[in-house]
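ERR on first pass: missing label on line 2. Operator R.T. fixed the label and resubmitted. Corrected input:
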Amino acid sequence: MRGREWSRPVRPARREVLSAVPELEEGRPPLLFVPGFGHGAWAFAEHWLGHVASRGFPAYAVSLRGHGGSEPAPEATLRAYAHDVVQVAASLPRQAVLVGHGAGALVVAHALARYPARGAVLVAPVFGGWGVLGAALRRNPAGTLPAVFGGPLRLNRGQLFSRELPDEEARRYVGRLGRAGRRAQWALLGEPEAEPAVGAPPVLVLGSPDDRVVPASTLTRVARRYGSAPLLFPGMGHDLMLDARWAEPIDAILDWLEKEPVAH
Amino acid sequence: MSTSTDHGRPDPEATSPAANSDGRPVSDRGDTVCVIGAGASGLTAIKNLREHGFGVDCYERETGVGGAWNWRHDRSPVYASTHLISSKPFTQFPDFPMPDSWPDYPHHSQLLSYFERYADHFDLRSHIWFGTEVIRVEPVEGDRWDVTTRSTGGYGPERTARYAAVVIANGHNWSPKLPRYEGLEQFRGEIMHASSYKDPAQLRGKRVLVVGAGNTGCDIAVEAAQQASRCWHSTRRGYWYAPKYVLGRPADQVNDSLLALRVPLRVRQWLYHWTLRLTVGDLTRFGLPKPDHRVYETHPIANSQLVYYVGHGGIGPVPDVARFHPYAVELADGREIDPEVVVFATGYLPRFEFLDASVFGDSAGAGRPTLWLNAFTPGHPTLAVAGLLQPDSGLFTLSHWQTVLFARLLQARRDRPERATAFAQRVRDRAGERYSGPVKDSSRHWFEVGHADYLRAIQRALVELEGK
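pass 2 clean. output:
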């Protein structure tokens, strides 16, 4: 019974979807990338989309409402974000693999309960909780504290990137960051766990032990929830798709997709 | 990352020889499940059975998906202007939302494209045999089923395959129900059933009598009010005509916010009457009969325009038809009217012409099967009917969960047989249960369910099947 969801449908919002499709349609499942809070589809368009397409998979990235080129939505909730993801996934020609990064992984976890994805990949998942808040407060008190009171969450380059990334690029990326709705930010602290995924999709969790946003223990916990162990890329920051060695994790994801005997 | 091909199409050469009662060869399809019909319910059955790891063969007599919603199909009841009467959140499959850009009440052509996208998205077409109709479904030992098919129209040889389970999703809005009237044969005007009504041009400039106040009857009456030179609308009783929008939102969404709060039926009825009083008020002043029942006791009619056109004099409400004369129609109150065209929007009856009536416990042949959850048959644990419901919301969410339950039941038969046995016992005990408040007794309401009550019942059944 989803009486409440039926009686209060999510307000539609214009969404930005960037894509890169391979020249030759090979019948492979499309990947839909979901950026974390503050990021837009651009974060994936930078490197990953093109790389995925060059390996024969159609690749799409959505900007959650209020992010990137999508419609502004200061009062957006986690449910509205999950709605955005499911809407885009259902509009793709085939059953999609959802790839969520950061808090986008939490959005994906919620979307999985509303859409039978072919598979899911959680990259450096931020599932909220007090541990993540504690880590963020320690690393970046000035950027984090306002978010607790409904202000914007400001991430700094030390949190997001490793030292290998050239200074100039890192500054450019940080400059493009936006902010999530305050209700969605608060949801990181108090939201109940996502409902179980429908259609039993295989789930891969990956991240970096040197991530300054997601502690390694969180990675292990999330991965255990989906019955696996996390795939680790030491030496990388939180934004694995923008960091200097961005090719390693995406290649690992595609290798996993190629050999995973997907249920369908 | 390719779709599995191990459950491809049946190949009579490669399978073990068995024979059916007539001694003709039967190809054994192992654990594969047969789905009859690739309409909305059939598609979701294929998708959910595949998702639970079963092989599926679906037989569809037409050449496309969408069943009743595909206007190209000769059994399709849709007419040019058909729109949904339940808003999007109630109509879509729960795991495949309709696009945000669509209106609250989409048009039937949008619905067809929705089903086509659903079929492509989940790669369902490779499991469907188009242009193939099922002519016999017979139970054989071991709770298995022999399904005999041939090309639609009766060409080609018959082929029989043996399946582990069968889902019947042949729809229930294609076999017209025509009432009997005295003198109908002598009537010289044109008579049509709503199933053959396609386009308002059929009524243009004519004097039209529309019989029946279902949603179709009301739609046709409204179109006749716009196109015909004169329109009468004959109804058996007074009805509640629900507007499509109240309080600034689609009406069914408002209703469901009350359901979510578990507001009791009486209070909801009172609120409803009160809302109507605020807007159109008492309908009897237009000559419409006073409803002989409280709201929610008949299938809801969602039509904002009917009352509007009655108020403009475009539709003349008249009582039941008493008898037909060659050039006139006599009404129950003695009046005579002279329509040129009579449209019977008198509904449809379910038909399972390929199945022996005793399978459904319907030995009297009345056409009304006795089922639990309107889906499960006592004594036949591997047979399910999908979509045989008249919900007060969209149907597809309901048939989705029906087929999920059936897929889980088939899993339980394999993995935890004791639970499947307990389930079969519940089917025997509770067959014929209803999932709505009190409704008027008529074949119109055989399959009437309240969507909230029904989904709760399905949820309970799922929990009982799988609970610790």
